[in-house]
Sequence to fold (355 residues):
Amino acid sequence: MPSADSWGGPAACEPPFAEALTRQGHNVVTATYVYGDKASPTSFFTRVLRVLKTAVRFRRLMREHQPDVLHLNTAFDLKTILRDSVTLLFVSKGSAKIFLKFHGSEADRFAESGWLVRRLIDIIRRRADGYGCLSKEELESFKRLGFHETKLFLVSNAVVFDAEMSSLNEEKDIDAFEILFVSRFVRAKGLLETIRACELLRVRGIKFRLTCIGDGEVLQEAKDLVGTLALGRVVTFTGYIPEREVTEYLRRADVLAFPTSHPEGFPIVLFKAMGAGLPIVTTRIRAAADRLSDPENCLFCTGEPTSIADRIEQLANDRELCSAMSANNMVAARAFTPDAVAIEYSQVYEKLRAF
Fold:
């Protein structure tokens, strides 16, 4: 499990998923495994100590509880490859099946990696019994890296949809189209491109407001860009807001803009917006490409400012399209409730036990 104060998708989706498994009658024991650096990075020495302590702790827990399945929430980058390989070497699994769920991955990066990294990946490939990928693109990348296709499963994240999301049309300003951007403010997420798209919308005479929720390395650059483009009256930065408080902004928005070029796994905000009945403008990347259709659930863009502006303008000028997309998204989101996702994973666990 993620630590309680971690940022990002795993901290939002894994606790309600574990609760749903319990409701289905599974005996679930949770322990912290995924660590978030949060506001400041963790030193290499501290990280190594943490990895070793966690591996020893998991060895003890496996002996104490003797589970049928050990489900580890992880990713697939250099840091997590090191952590997972050490953990899997230490863990005495007995009859348990080990399942690694990748919350995003960079498998293609390691096709030409050095000897040591290849050895660590081989430990993960041999010691684990199954792997959960959040998109077809990632699943194919693991196949190319030598992971056997019978061990790879296409899975989803659990998304909590708040009850108050049902009153979608309250408090919306009919004079200004409300654009919402929610993400970590890293360059690949598309915040700067969204701001430049807003300048194009202003030139085209579209009345709008943009609310940017999050924090990160490009925050000051984004604020400077807003100043340069003289968009200060229509662009607002809220800073970081806890997941549960984002709901109110989703209720008031007309569209979620998420033009990411980041190798997303299954971005929670995208699917939480679906549950809120929001129209979406996003890029055709990974989970979005697999689970969203244009124009039923979203309008796909290229990530370039002109393309983003074109799609937002299309929605701003077509309220019927917005209404249809809203209704479709609320229905489609039901597949990602914690209880629905827990059923999906129960079936995966049963397949692992049959290996």
User: Anything to note?
Assistant: Residues 44-65 form the longest helix (22 residues). The chain has two domains: 9-158+337-354, 163-334. Residues 163-334 form a domain with the Rossmann fold fold (CATH 3.40.50.2000). The longest strand covers residues 97-105.
